[in-house]
């Protein structure tokens, strides 16, 4: 359980960081008028990804053992 | 009064005991913070025109002033703190373990203060934060700075501090005190079993391995905020990233050394920071300060050979113009700090008092160097034909910055009254043996 949650959080965190990074860039736009990120709020996704990865480390250690 | 403090007698390192000295510190820090808040309130009520900040070029001023100088300084200090904590774990430098928590706390406090300084610099803080979260672009160095520094390093340092303190918290939670609830909460069920210790070692190792590259990237992007600005002579250049990294290491180590010396003195009989710690910090500081001075000289040398008029104007302003006294002060202080460190290394005697003097000199030189990085390029290096401008912070900016320092000091001071600043396994053994804590 501990391992599943940790791997899940790390994977989803890394995925969020990649998605956030890529969608924060104004791909395919060619003028200043269209310079917003592809997804508004994409930088937030990147930060959520970082939080998710660090939370994984904390949860890995803090989650109680099953036999308790 | 005696009845109130009685339940906390069993806590080590003066935790929970409010001495007269500590109350005096609290009072002074709150007064300075209060005045800083007043100055910020005045700035918010009347607009940023009450500061010395003005537009570059047309108004002959600087839009980034003392606040941004302090952002760069505090972020530099913070990253060195957690780097020392990480390096001591990865390379198993046991001598540095006693100050690992101080380093982590220094990181958390400096980062909080540095990030508040960014917010203070924004005329419309809420709008700035909202727009950054919605529209920041990864092509901008600010993206890396805010996401990696604000998000990554700050949270990792908090995780470090929290996880590293659980064992101590669990031990403290067994002692009846007014802070028992807090220690239980921090321990979050820690029982010190073999599995938990093993897990803790693994997590801390991987956090340490992860944070070192994060710090390098974060500080490099901090430097790139200036280094990629093509239209600003004095900023544009490939050395800004490494220069920020090196100066951050020097100023961070200097501050860690000063803080460790203060805490060593404050803890009195509870002190576990021995001379070996300062020896290590002195050696690290010697390397970092040497590299910082090297970068200062290389950058100046490059600037002196610049042919375009704007670079030459900037070099003149630094060497013999408006900023000359700050420039020579920074060079002088850095050289003094370095000379003191070299003399100690040569004699193989690391005196704490001398190390503190060297650290104060290096830390002050770092503030001056950050000032020279941020300000002169705005007032004296315009590519458009504007006359050279001027900037010097006024009472509002100085008061706000003093408030920031007081806030950082308060964070550290309050922490010390709620939790042992030095990992306390040894301290508790002493206590178990019946050694009474008599110090504040």
Polypeptide structure, described:
Helix content of chain A is 65%, strand content 0%. Chain A has 68 residues and is an all-alpha fold. In chain A, α1 runs antiparallel to α2 (42-62). Chain A is rod-shaped. By secondary structure, chain B is mainly α. In chain B, 49% of the residues are buried. The longest helix of chain B has 34 residues, at 194-227. The interface between A and B is medium-sized, with 23 and 30 residues.
First and last CA, distance of chain B: 15 Å
Secondary-structure-based class of chain A equals: mainly alpha
Secondary-structure element sequence of chain B?
A: HHHHHHHHHHHHHHHH
Using only C-alpha atoms, the radius of gyration of chain B works out to 23 Å
Oligomer: heterodimer
| Unreliable residue runs of chain A | none
Helix content percent band of chain B:
over 70%
Uncertain stretches of 5 or more adjacent residues of chain B: 1-8, 426-440
Structural class designation of chain B: mainly alpha
Write out key terms for the chains shown.
heterodimer, A: 68 residues, mainly alpha, B: 440 residues, 16 helices, globular, disordered C terminus
Short description:
The complex is a heterodimer of chains A (about 70) and B (about 450). Chain A is an all-alpha fold and about 70 residues long. Chain A is about 65% helix and about 0% strand.
């Amino acid at each position: 359980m501990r391992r599943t949650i940790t791997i899940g959080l790390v994977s989803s965190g890394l995925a969020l960081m990649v998605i956030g990074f890529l969608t924060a860039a104004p791909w395919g736009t060619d003028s200043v008028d269209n310079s917003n990120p592809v997804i508004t709020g994409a930088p937030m996704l990147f930060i959520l990804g970082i939080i998710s990865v660090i939370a994984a480390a904390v949860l890995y250690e803090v989650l109680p053992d099953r036999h308790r | 009064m005696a009845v109130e403090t009685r339940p906390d007698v069993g806590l080590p390192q003066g935790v929970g005991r409010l001495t007269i000295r500590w109350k005096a510190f609290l009072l002074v820090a709150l007064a300075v913070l209060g005045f800083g808040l007043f100055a910020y309130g005045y700035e918010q009520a009347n607009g940023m025109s009450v500061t010395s900040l003005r537009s570059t070029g047309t108004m002959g001023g600087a839009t980034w002033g003392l606040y941004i100088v302090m952002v760069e300084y505090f972020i530099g200090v913070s990253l060195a703190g957690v780097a020392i904590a990480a390096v001591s774990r990865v390379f198993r430098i046991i001598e540095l373990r006693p100050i690992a928590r101080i380093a982590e706390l220094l990181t958390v406090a400096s980062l909080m203060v540095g990030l508040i300084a960014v917010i203070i610099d924004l005329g419309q803080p809420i709008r700035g934060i909202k727009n950054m979260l919605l529209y920041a672009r990864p092509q901008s160095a600010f993206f890396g700075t805010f996401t990696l520094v604000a998000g990554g390093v700050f949270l990792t340092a908090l995780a470090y501090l929290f996880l590293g303190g659980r064992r101590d918290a669990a031990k403290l939670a067994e002692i009846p005190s007014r802070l028992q609830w807090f220690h239980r909460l921090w321990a979050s069920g820690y029982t010190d079993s073999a599995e938990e210790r093993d897990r803790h070692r693994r997590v801390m190792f991987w956090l340490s391995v992860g944070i070192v590259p994060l710090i390098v990237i974060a500080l490099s992007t901090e430097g790139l905020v200036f280094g990629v600005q093509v239209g600003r002579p004095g900023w544009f250049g490939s050395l800004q990233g490494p220069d920020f990294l090196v100066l951050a290491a020097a100023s961070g180590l200097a501050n860690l050394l000063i803080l460790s010396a203060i805490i060593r003195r404050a803890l009195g009989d509870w002190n576990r920071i021995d001379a070996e710690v300062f020896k290590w910090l002195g050696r690290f500081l010697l390397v970092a300060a040497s590299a910082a001075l090297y970068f200062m000289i290389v950058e100046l040398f490059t600037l002196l050979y610049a042919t375009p008029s704007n670079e030459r104007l900037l070099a003149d302003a630094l060497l013999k113009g408006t900023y000359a006294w700050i420039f020579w002060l920074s060079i002088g202080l850095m050289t003094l700090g370095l000379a003191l460190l070299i003399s100690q290394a040569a004699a193989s005697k690391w005196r704490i008092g001398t190390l503190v003097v060297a650290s104060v000199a290096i830390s002050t030189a770092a503030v001056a160097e950050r000032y020279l990085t941020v300000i002169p390029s705005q007032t004296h290096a315009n590519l458009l034909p504007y006359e050279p401008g001027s900037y010097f912070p006024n009472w509002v900016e100085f008061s706000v910055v003093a408030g920031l320092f007081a806030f950082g000091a308060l964070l550290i001071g309050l922490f010390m009254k709620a939790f042992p600043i030095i990992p306390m396994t040894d301290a508790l053994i002493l206590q178990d043996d019946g050694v009474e804590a008599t110090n504040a």
